[in-house]
Design a protein that fits this description.
mainly alpha
């Protein structure tokens, strides 16, 4: 049936007189696209089996690093926090301990990146920023684990394992982010075999 052909027994639902319209900017659209890319990398990362619980490569942080360098800390914070919230909703862990672990890691890494972006670019770049952020991420998660989940000094034995993972994955992600930033916008002039 069409709207004009409603029977007397069916009540007609009027169209609302007002609607919610949001004024979005090009920056909003760009942040949403970058958050979607980061979320896609999070989904990919969750499909990779992990030898230890909590040890993940942090592929979405590559996007956060690129956004930090190109668009600033505010945009990077939006991308990172949108990814955490959307990822937790997607995986059904919103407001579960995993969400708070992810959120604490993201907030700590964003705080470190807020200060690290002002370090001299001559000596500090995407790789060092990524390593700092990875260590801050692990530190934030370990703090939440100790304060909330496992208040036992025995978790200190895990610090070397997580610190090693932070160093390795932070360096790899930083190198990947640097490569994307170096190659972006440059035409490939090399002949393909």
């Amino acid at each position: 049936m069409q709207d004009s052909e409603t029977s007397p027994s069916e009540p007609r639902i009027p169209h609302p007189a007002s609607s919610l319209l949001l004024d979005t900017t090009a920056e909003d659209h760009h942040i949403a696209r970058m958050a979607a890319v980061a979320l896609g990398l999070t989904v990919l990362e969750n499909a990779i089996p992990s030898p230890l619980p909590g040890v993940k490569p942090g592929l979405a942080n590559i996007v956060t690093l690129i956004v930090l360098v190109r668009y600033g800390w505010r945009a990077a914070a939006w991308v990172s926090l949108l990814r955490v919230v959307a990822g937790s909703l997607l995986f059904g862990s919103f407001l579960a301990p995993g969400f708070f672990l992810s959120l604490s890691g993201a907030v700590c890494s964003l705080l470190v990146l807020a200060f690290a972006q002002y370090l001299p670019a001559r000596w500090f770049g995407p790789v060092s920023h990524s390593i700092y952020a990875a260590f801050a991420h692990i530190a934030g998660q370990m703090l939440v684990v100790y304060v909330w989940l496992i208040p036992h000094a025995g978790i200190a034995y895990l610090i070397p394992i997580f610190a090693t993972a932070a160093l390795v994955f932070g360096a790899v992600n930083g190198i990947i982010a640097a490569r994307f930033m170096d190659n972006d916008g440059k035409p490939n002039m090399e002949p393909q075999p």
